[in-house]
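hi! just following up on the protien thing from before. the input was this:
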Amino acid sequence: MSITAFARRARTLRLAAAGLTAVAALTLTACNNNEGTGTESEGKPDSSEQEIGPCDVNKLTIGVKSVQRPVNYMVLEVNNHAGVDCNMPGYPILKFGEDAQAATPVYEDSKPQAVVTLAPGKTAYAGIRTSSADGSGQNGYKATSLEVFLQGSDDSKPVELPGGSVYIDDTAQVTYWQSDLSNALD
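and the predicted 3d structure came back as:
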C-alpha cells in the first residue's frame, strides 16, 4: 500500500471515529437531559409539577346570596378568573359591617380533607350562618356591608349583601372553603 493510500485510509478512519464519538456524545447528552420524561429538559419544571399558588382576591368574582335552607344561612361563591389554577386556603375571613370588632368565627367541623384548588372558571363555596334559628344568639345587629378577605392576604373585596342588609348575632359562623355547594350548606 502506498503512503498516499495509507494516509487516505487513516484520514477516513479518523473521520469515522470522530463522527461516532460525536454521535455517542449527543446521544448521551440527550439521554441525560430527557431522563425519565422523554420530552422535558433537566432543570426546566414541567407545568404539571409547578406549585399552585393561593388565589388573588382581585382575580376572583365574589358574591353572596341567601338560601332557603338551612334557615339564617347564606352562601359565599367565589369564581376564578385568573386563567390558572389557584388554591383557596382555609376559610374566608368575613367582616360584617363597618363596626365589626372581630372576624366571623369558623365552623371547625367543616374542614375539608384537602385545600380546595380552583381551576379557571370554577367556583368554590363557603356557608355562612348569620344568626341562630331559635333566637338564642345575642349582641345582634343589622349589617349593611360585607368585606371578604382571603387567608394569607391583606387584600379584601367588598361584597353586596342580599336585600342590602342582614341580621348578624354572636352565633354567626363561616365554613371552610368547599368545592361543592352541598358541603358548604351541611
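Helices lie at 3-33, 181-185.
The chain has a mean pLDDT of 81.
cheers
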